[in-house]
UniProtKB/TrEMBL annotation:
Reaction(s) catalysed (UniProt annotation): [protein]-peptidylproline (omega=180) = [protein]-peptidylproline (omega=0)
Keywords: Isomerase, Membrane, Rotamase, Signal, Transmembrane, Transmembrane helix
InterPro entries: PPIase_dom_sf (IPR046357), PPIase_PpiC (IPR000297), PPIase_PpiC_CS (IPR023058), PrsA_foldase (IPR050245), Trigger_fact/SurA_dom_sf (IPR027304)
Disordered: annotated segments: 1-37
EC number annotated for this UniProt entry: 5.2.1.8
Domain PpiC: 227-333
Protein name per Swiss-Prot or TrEMBL: peptidylprolyl isomerase
Provenance organism: Clostridioides difficile (Peptoclostridium difficile)
Amino acid sequence: MSEEKNPKENTLDEPKNSDNVNSKKDDVSDEKNTDNKVKKREIKLNNKTLKAIVAIVAVGAICLGGGYVFGKEAGRKLPATSKHYNSSEVVATIGDKKITGEMLRKRMEPLFYLNAKTTMTDDEIRSYESNMIETMITSDILSSEAAKEKISITNDQLDAQYNNLMSSIESAMGMTKEEFLKQFDLTEKYIKDDMKKELVASKYLNEKSKVTDKEAENYYNKNKSNYLQVRASHILIKTVDDKGKQVSSSKKAELKKEAEEILKKAQAGEDFATLAKKYSEDSSAESGGDLGFFGKGQMVESFEKAAFALKKGEVSNKLVESDYGYHIIKKTDEKYQPFEEVKSDLVSSLTSEKQNLLIQNLKEKYNVKITDKYQMKAKE
């Protein structure tokens, strides 16, 4: 398939290039559950292609991707996932400039090849497309603003980033820099020109979204309740079987009566830790039901609401139900996380908020519009 030419008028500036991609990596995801039955499940992505995608795709919304064309090696096997893009179709507009289907194709096809063994769903493709379009838009508007303020980077900084990129490619794809450039018909100058635009955009964004320690501390003081942590112990009577399925309604009723009897003992003043060790079906039973300190958003909603509402030393006056079963809760302590303990995460969060607001305001300033077909719509 040969490359179709783009009209030059009113499209984002992109150097012309052509190439093939022949790198295949597998995605691996790993879901880990906390040991405790009341803690929310956390999903951690361990993606083997992440370095390759970041190195080859994300830098400059594919700093190498001015043109991947698959005509040089016509016999190459196509990836499991591919998609045809109408080269002249308007994907988005930034003022009077256009992002075309051809420009999007150039950035999407390397992703298909990096995930060559995986068949992507339509939703996954749309998600990749949406992220790629947002990257292209953000890069353009930020670099335009940076140019107005004469923000630049040094040649040494550019060289360092380029060398890091080449090292990542060598690690991810098993190619030397020379082999990579030859394989994909690229030049060092071509890559650096595109990287420079992205790095300037990033520098502008960072300079405009700095958060001082004082700003972070002021936010902390105004929202201190968000940093309250409680320590609680609990007794769990499970209403799910070993496969995680809910037991029958009659069995559940029996279990509820059992839990209510234990609740009476706890409210009567019997040692809570002893009761937990004897009756609780949670892994925390060995430690007397102690869950340690936790903040908001770390436990399932019903459990969290009940635990935070209790006074120190108080036992819940009724059973608390969750998907796991019936809980009897005792609040043993509470404290506020110190500012120094949350400062790093807070600065990061406030920085992200500033960046998102800046980008949103610039999108309005530059009259950014994404074609309906390429907008990510929330699932009903």
